[in-house]
Each structure stands twice: as structure tokens, then as C-alpha cells.
């Protein structure tokens, strides 16, 4: 059996020689692991553990959550082939990590005990170094159970004491000339706990092993100074020099000498530094270099490196130094869990009774997201917890720059408010770049170089984007760029009303043209590629609609119609209904062409049908569009227009007839549905519109399947199911010919459903596999859930009851997440099996819960097991 080693300092991880479990194990399983792995071989009572982790939850519910959490943890620590209980010991009353496994906490404390027991200074120093090497960060960061917080404080105190004792020993043992202890400034309240950034800290340490100059980059408020101080606290022979009050870069060597309090001398600062570090290597941390780069600061730093070969330098800055020997490290915003942890900790300083609860957790997470994970912004927001709830703070973020300020005297001026922090970096940008940045703020989310060039009209856009990226004002993401929301709002404040109005029009016009060029490609072989492009721009669509619906109804209607086609394919129906309703209302305030008004009715019909199941309203809107197009067709035919000119009108009529058929199918009027689907098929056949003809066949399949499902006589059922199968097979062939994956997914779903109904289970497996893969790739949500249900039925048929339970949980989980209807228990498809009786209630609940929270990637792996099993059986026979 492999021995597990649990790393709890700087993260919560576990590993053997062949397996590694990282922080992604989850919050509650991670908390349970941290609690138990503190002392391998020691058990705790189940009731004690439940009370620690779920103190505010009803006991029966807490016990159920404990069982689910235990199941998730056991899957990680005791995978298939590992004896149950060999790692995670449980019985009716106790739970713990079995003896024989190790933890870094145990080894850390053992090294400290060894140091305390020896009388040899050199040996004691060795033990202390071993202990500090194990202390890679706070105990169980990101977990806030009271017992874990207490343990974190205890271990932190032990580590600090070890550092102090080691420093005393090294000072006593050393015969080298030592520097006087520098008086370090404290720009940020370093007595506060440090959160996250463990990977960044380790990355900086690695970079400093290979490079003598590392620049830590990031916009104002990302925590560069705080991370640099944490690096200084954990790095021997390191010194922190704040340059925030310096105004001339050529004075950097003098500032270093002054901060280190080197003995007075008539020699230059470089000579004094060379003498001080002649036989001693050290790390100098230069904080806030950005305002000095253009006034000789970069050259001064280069001169220090050249004059003192034993020094390494870490510079914190918002812009690069552009020195040949420089290695840059971009500091990103805090990830969600660390951001929430920081907020909770700082909120407790403002209000000692503040706790993270199920009720406020969502608001805190959204608050941190809206603040872009910027530590300064989060700290300033948390300070408001003294008088406001997290939800109240969230509701006031529209005035974030007024809300997020702190007048305490222990902060430097640039850290007293979010605006002051951003003003500091803004002042370093050239006027042309400042103007360019404010224009970019019209974008929401990410944007392309082409969009930036088109809307700003700036010939030097690529150079200005580079300057902004170097100055940490935007982030490059592959071929796209993104502004943090906080920086975007800062830039918008600086736009005049005239400039804002002009940019609003340019932004809307660009995306009107962009969507018009691409929306028709959603019908062809480029469907997946075009859909992905639409998803990249969806934040910009919404931003343009939000603005134009207020000020420019004509542009709003055109853009809304262009984007509606994307919404129909991507299941963005909630915003679709709202924006289509607003656009239709806007037609009363402006002269909008009748064609566009009619198209709004057509799209509203689909939104009402799909989102609200309001088939009467849907049919009313469809009919208005149909009547308009029918009148238009008669008018154009009378005018003698040729078939090519009439094609779009006829295609629109065929599509509307199909949509009317679907509204009747949902309303269970199968005769009317079949009549409309057949009429639509005839119309599409006449004009050669093959892709939509396949869709009509899908409608006819649904009617036949519904009739078969409702029939009581087995022979009658078979007739309808076979009829449905023929429709699906014909539609599948068309979809493959025209390379239309979106509609092909419909057909494969039909095959996966129909073959089992016709007792041809094996023939349905290829369609099940391919359909699920396409549905996942296209994020075709309704069909992802349908295929998960089919896998549930298939697993039941195969007597793979544990996999069946997970698929059923997954279908329910994704249906809830995406707000769609979970498939009902199909009496024709589902074998009559009682899973709770077969598995037991506890086992069933654990498996169902695992499926409910499973990722699509893990579910695809689970599905692959079904197919592998069938292929193995096929080859065996």
C-alpha cells in the first residue's frame, strides 16, 4: 500500500508515489482533510467533526452532508484497488487518517522538537532550517473553521519564533561583517494575515534563483507590495526599500544606502554598496519603481546590478523597466477562494462578530468578482462590514470609487482609496495613451485588436495596447485583450458626454456589422467556430444593447435582431426575452421598418415558447410574422420578382410554419403540429433549403414518437416508433451531407432514444456516444441533459447501478444549473429497478450527489466506460 503524505502548509494537498490530490478536492472535503490529516493515527468522533464543519446546520442535514463529503474524500484517497479503511478510517462513531501516513505539520513540529532538544548551535540551526523549509505558508489557507484558524495562528507563531531563533544563531555564528538592521517602512498593514499567492511566491523564488533582476508587475491594488513583503519575510538576507516618496530615479542608490543605514562615508552610494556586500549575497526589494523609470530609474537599477555582483533585485512596478537582464512576473488578481478569504478576514477586523455563512457567501463571492479580485479593493470593501452587510456593499458598488476609501492614518495616500491607487498609475501614461485607454473602456469583457482599431480609429493601436499592457492597465489573453472592470469604470469616468455618445455609436455600429457578416454562417459547416466567436463577444453585445436601447432605438433593434439568432443557438433565452421585449417597445418611439418589427415578433415567439412555455403568446407572435411575410410574398410575386429574390421570403415562411408546428406540439395538438411540419418540409424542399428540411423531419419524428409513447397497444407503439426512426435517419443523412452539427445533434438524440424503444439497444450506442460528444462540444444544454438521461437508462439496462445513479444525479444537476426541465422517468426506456433498494439509501445518496456535482469531463470519462465495456463484450463474442 502507498503511503500518503499530506501537505497542509501553504495549501491542502495529498500525494503518494503515484497519485496527487490538489486543492480542487473542494471546500468541505478540503476542510475535513485538513482537520483529520493534522494527526494521522488519531481519530475524532463523528459528532465532533460534524459540529466543527457544519455548526449552523440542522444535525440530520449536517450528518447527510458529512456522509457525502466523506464519500468524495474517500474516492480521492482510496481509489479502486485500495483497501477501504487503509487511508481513511471510519466506523460507526469515529473517523480519522489511519496510522502510517505523514503530514508536513507533523514533520515541521518534529524538527522544532529536535531543535529544542539539542545543545549544539550548528545542529539546532540545521533543524530550524529544516522546519522552516517545511513551512511553505499558512496552515490550510482558504479554510475558516474556528479550529483551523486557531491551529493556523499556533503554527504561524511557531514559525515566526523559529525564524527569530535561527536569525540569532546565524548572527552569533557568523564572522562576516553584518549590516545594521534596516528600519523597514510598512506601506500596508503587515500585521494582517497574508492570503493566497503561494504559487506566485514560489514562482518569484524560482525566478530569483535564475535572474538577478525580477520585476513584479500589476495594476494598482493587486497586492504587489504585500507579496513583496511576504517574500522578504521568508527570505534570509533580504531588505525592503520603499521608493514611493522618491521623485528622481537617479537617487535610487542613495535611497538604498539610506534605508540600509550604512555607515557614513564620502564615497558614492555604489561604492558603499559594493563594500557592504563584497562578501555577502542579498536580495534587495525595491518597492514602487514605476514613477522613477523615465527619470533615470532603470539606468540606476542597472548600475546597482553592475556595481554589486552579489545582489539580486526584486522591483515592484506597474510598468516594465525594459532592461536586458530583467525577468518580468505579472501578478494576476486573487482567485475566488483567496479573495473571499481575504474579505472575511478583513471584515472580522472591522466587526469581530462577522462570520462567513451560507446566507452571505454568495454575496461575498459576487462582490469579490465585481471587484476583479483586487486585494486593495477587497480590503476597502471589507472595512465597510462594520456597518453594512455584504449584500448592501454589493448594491452600492455602482459608486465604488466613493465607497472604497479609507481615511486611516496608517496607510500611504495611494492606498487610502481605490481612486488614489489608480490615479498613481494613470499619471504615468502619456496623454495619447490616456485618451486611447478611455476609448477602450467602451468595451465590456474582452475585445480584439481589430475591434480596438476600428472603434478608436487609432493607427498606433498595437503600440498603445502594448504600452497599456506594460503599464498593467489591460491584460492580453491570446489574441484578445481585457480590461479589469474596476479599471474600465475608472476610464469611463474620464470620458466627456460627447465622447461617450460618439463611442457608443461606433461600438454599436461595429458589432452590428460584425454580427451581420457572421450570423448566416450559423447554418453551415462553420457553425461551431462561429458560435464560439459569438460567445467571445456576448458581453459587448449586451453592453451595446444596454446603451442603445436608451439612446438609439434604431441601432438597438438592428443589433438585437442580429444577436437573436446567436441567442437561439446558445440558450441565452433569459436575456433574449428581456431585450426583445425592450426592442419591441422601442419601436413605438422611433420609425422602425416594418420588416424589423415583424422579425422581432418572430424571435419573441421563440423566446416565449422556449423560456416561458407560453405557447399562446408564442403562436400570436409567430402569426404576426407569418402574416407580414405572406403579404410581402404576394406583393413581390405580383411585381414579377424572380425565384432568387423570393427565396428569403419563402424560407422565412417555411421557418415560421415550422415554429407554429412546434407551438402546437408543445400544446399536445399533434394533428396541427404534424400538418405544419409537413407543410414546412414541402416548402423547404421546393426551395432547396436542406438544412431546414432536416429540422422539419426532426419535428415529424417528435410527433410520431409522442404518438407511440402515448399508445397502449405494443404493435401500435412499434409502428409509430419505426415511423419516427425513418424520419430521424433521413434527417441524419441530410445533416451529415450539409455538415450541420447543431441539427445533427437533434438526430443523434432521436436515434439514441428510438433504438432502445425498438429493442435494438446496441444500435443506439454509436449515436449515444457521438451525440453526447457533440452536445458537450457545442454546449447544447437541453441535449446534454437528454444524453445524460439516456446514459442513465443504458447503465440500468447493463445493470451498472452505481454509474446509473451518477448519471441520474448529473442529469438533475445540470438541469438545475441551466434552468431546464430534467427528463421525466420514461416508462418505455427505463428498466424497472429500485436503485435505493439495490444500493442502500446511504450509498445511493452519495453516488447521486457525486453525479449532481460532476464536471462534464468526468461524465464523459464515465460514459466511455459504458462503451468500453460493450466493445470488450463484443470482441469476446
TrEMBL record:
This is Putative ATPase. Residues 193-372 form the Orc1-like AAA ATPase domain. Gene3D superfamilies: P-loop containing nucleotide triphosphate hydrolases, Tetratricopeptide repeat domain, Winged helix-like DNA-binding domain superfamily/Winged helix DNA-binding domain. The lineage of its organism: Bacteria, Bacillati, Armatimonadota, Armatimonadia, Armatimonadales. InterPro entries: AAA_16, P-loop_NTPase, Sig_transdc_resp-reg_C-effctor, TPR-like_helical_dom_sf, WH-like_DNA-bd_sf. One of its GO terms (molecular function) is ADP binding. Residues 145-172 form a coiled coil. The keyword Coiled coil applies. The keyword Repeat does not apply. It comes from Armatimonas rosea. GO terms for biological process: regulation of DNA-templated transcription. It comes from the Bacteria. PANTHER family: HTH-TYPE TRANSCRIPTIONAL REGULATOR RV0890C-RELATED, REGULATOR-RELATED. Keywords: Coiled coil.
Amino acid at each position: 500500500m502507498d503511503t500518503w503524505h499530506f501537505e497542509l502548509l501553504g495549501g491542502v494537498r495529498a500525494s503518494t508515489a503515484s497519485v496527487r490530490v490538489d486543492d480542487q478536492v473542494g471546500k468541505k472535503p478540503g476542510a475535513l482533510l485538513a482537520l483529520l490529516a493534522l494527526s494521522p493515527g488519531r481519530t475524532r468522533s463523528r459528532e465532533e467533526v460534524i459540529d466543527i464543519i457544519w455548526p449552523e446546520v440542522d444535525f440530520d442535514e449536517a450528518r447527510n452532508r458529512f456522509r457525502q463529503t466523506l464519500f468524495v474524500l474517500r474516492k480521492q484517497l482510496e481509489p479502486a484497488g485500495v483497501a477501504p479503511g487503509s487511508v481513511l478510517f471510519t466506523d460507526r462513531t469515529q473517523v480519522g487518517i489511519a496510522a502510517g501516513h505523514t503530514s508536513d505539520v507533523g514533520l515541521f513540529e518534529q524538527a522544532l522538537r529536535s531543535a529544542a532538544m539539542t545543545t549544539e548551535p550548528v545542529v539546532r540551526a540545521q533543524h530550524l532550517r529544516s522546519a522552516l523549509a517545511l513551512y511553505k505558508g499558512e496552515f490550510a489557507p482558504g479554510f475558516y473553521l474556528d479550529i483551523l484558524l486557531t491551529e493556523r495562528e499556533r503554527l504561524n507563531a511557531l514559525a515566526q519564533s523559529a525564524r527569530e531563533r535561527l536569525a540569532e544563531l546565524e548572527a552569533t555564528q557568523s564572522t562576516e561583517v553584518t549590516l545594521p538592521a534596516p528600519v523597514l517602512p510598512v506601506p500596508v498593514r503587515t500585521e494582517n494575515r497574508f492570503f493566497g499567492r503561494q504559487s506566485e511566491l514560489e514562482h518569484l523564488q524560482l525566478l530569483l534563483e535564475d535572474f538577478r533582476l525580477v520585476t513584479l508587475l500589476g495594476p494598482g491594488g493587486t497586492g504587489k507590495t504585500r507579496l513583496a513583503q511576504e517574500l522578504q519575510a521568508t527570505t534570509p538576507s533580504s531588505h525592503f526599500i520603499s521608493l514611493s516618496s522618491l521623485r528622481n530615479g537617479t537617487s535610487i542608490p542613495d535611497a538604498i544606502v539610506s534605508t540600509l543605514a550604512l555607515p557614513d562615508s564620502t564615497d558614492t552610494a555604489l561604492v558603499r554598496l559594493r563594500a557592504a556586500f563584497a562578501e555577502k549575497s542579498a536580495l534587495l526589494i525595491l518597492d514602487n519603481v514605476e514613477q522613477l523609470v523615465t527619470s533615470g530609474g532603470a539606468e540606476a537599477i542597472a548600475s546597482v546590478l553592475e556595481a554589486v555582483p552579489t545582489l539580486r533585485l526584486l522591483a515592484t512596478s506597474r510598468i516594465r523597466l525594459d532592461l536586458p537582464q530583467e525577468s518580468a512576473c505579472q501578478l494576476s488578481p486573487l482567485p475566488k477562494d483567496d479573495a473571499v478569504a481575504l474579505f472575511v478576514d478583513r471584515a472580522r477586523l472591522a466587526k469581530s462578530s462577522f462570520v462567513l455563512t451560507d446566507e452571505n457567501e454568495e454575496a461575498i463571492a459576487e462582490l469579490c468578482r465585481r471587484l476583479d479580485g483586487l486585494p486593495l479593493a477587497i480590503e476597502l470593501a471589507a472595512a465597510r462590514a462594520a456597518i453594512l452587510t455584504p449584500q448592501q456593499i454589493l448594491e452600492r458598488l455602482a459608486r465604488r470609487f466613493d465607497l472604497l476609501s479609507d481615511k486611516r492614518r496608517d496607510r500611504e495616500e495611494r492606498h487610502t482609496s481605490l481612486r488614489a491607487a489608480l490615479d498613481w498609475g494613470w499619471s504615468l501614461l502619456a496623454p495619447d495613451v490616456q485618451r486611447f485607454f478611455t476609448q477602450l473602456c467602451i468595451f465590456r469583457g474582452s475585445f480584439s485588436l481589430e475591434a480596438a482599431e476600428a472603434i478608436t480609429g487609432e493607427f498606433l493601436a498595437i503600440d498603445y495596447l502594448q504600452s497599456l499592457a506594460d503599464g498593467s492597465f489591460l491584460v492580453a489573453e491570446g489574441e484578445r485583450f481585457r480590461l479589469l472592470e474596476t479599471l474600465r469604470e475608472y476610464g469611463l469616468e474620464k470620458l466627456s458626454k460627447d465622447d461617450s455618445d460618439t463611442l457608443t455609436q461606433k461600438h454599436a455600429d461595429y458589432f452590428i456589422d460584425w454580427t451581420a457578416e457572421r450570423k448566416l454562417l450559423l447554418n453551415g459547416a462553420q457553425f461551431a467556430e462561429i458560435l464560439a466567436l459569438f460567445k467571445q463577444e456576448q458581453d459587448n453585445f449586451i453592453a451595446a444593447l444596454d446603451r442603445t436601447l436608451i439612446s438609439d432605438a434604431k441601432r438597438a433593434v438592428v443589433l438585437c435582431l442580429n444577436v437573436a439568432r446567436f441567442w437561439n443557438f446558445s440558450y441565452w433565452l433569459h436575456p433574449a426575452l428581456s431585450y426583445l421585449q425592450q426592442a419591441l417597445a422601442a419601436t413605438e418611439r422611433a420609425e422602425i421598418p416594418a420588416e424589423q418589427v415583424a422579425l422581432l415578433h418572430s424571435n419573441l415567439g421563440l423566446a416565449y415558447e422556449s423560456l416561458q412555455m407560453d405557447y399562446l403568446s408564442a403562436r400570436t407572435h409567430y402569426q404576426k410574422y407569418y402574416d407580414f411575410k405572406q403579404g410581402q410574398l404576394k406583393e413581390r410575386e405580383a411585381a414579377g420578382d424572380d425565384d432568387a429574390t423570393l427565396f428569403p421570403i419563402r424560407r422565412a415562411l417555411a421557418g415560421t410554419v415550422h415554429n407554429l408546428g412546434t407551438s402546437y406540439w408543445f400544446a399536445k395538438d399533434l394533428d396541427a403540429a404534424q400538418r405544419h411540419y409537413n407543410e414546412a418540409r414541402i416548402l423547404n424542399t421546393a426551395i432547396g433549403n436542406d438544412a431546414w428540411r432536416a429540422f422539419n423531419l426532426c419535428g415529424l419524428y417528435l410527433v410520431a414518437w409522442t404518438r407511440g409513447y402515448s399508445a397502449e397497444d405494443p404493435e401500435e407503439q412499434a409502428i409509430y416508433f419505426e415511423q419516427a426512426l425513418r424520419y430521424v435517419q433521413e434527417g441524419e443523412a441530410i445533416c451529415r451531407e450539409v455538415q450541420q452539427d447543431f441539427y445533427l445533434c437533434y438526430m443523434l438524440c432521436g436515434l439514441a432514444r428510438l433504438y432502445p424503444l425498438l429493442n435494438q439497444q446496441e444500435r443506439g450506442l454509436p449515436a449515444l456516444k457521438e451525440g453526447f460528444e457533440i452536445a458537450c462540444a457545442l454546449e447544447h444544454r437541453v441535449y446534454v441533459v437528454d444524453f445524460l438521461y439516456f446514459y442513465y437508462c443504458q447503465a440500468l439496462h447493463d445493470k451498472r447501478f452505481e454509474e446509473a445513479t451518477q448519471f441520474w444525479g448529473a442529469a438533475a444537476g445540470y438541469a438545475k444549473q441551466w434552468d431546464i426541465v430534467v427528463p421525466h422517468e420514461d416508462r418505455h426506456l427505463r428498466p424497472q429497478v429500485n436503485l435505493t433498494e439495490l444500493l442502500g439509501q446511504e450509498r445511493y445518496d452519495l453516488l447521486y450527489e457525486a453525479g449532481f456535482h460532476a464536471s462534464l469531463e468526468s461524465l464523459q470519462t464515465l460514459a466511455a466506460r459504458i462503451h468500453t465495456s460493450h466493445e470488450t463484450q463484443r470482441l469476446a463474442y
